Amino acid sequence: MADPHFQKPPDLMVAGPAQLHDEDLDIFGGQMRAHFGDEWMQIHDEALDNVRQILGGAEKPYLVPGSGTTALEMAVASIFEPGQRVVVADTGFFGNRLLEVAAALELEVTRIEVEVGKAIDPSQISDACEGASG
Question: What is the pLDDT averaged over residues 108-131?
Answer without folding.
Answer: 89
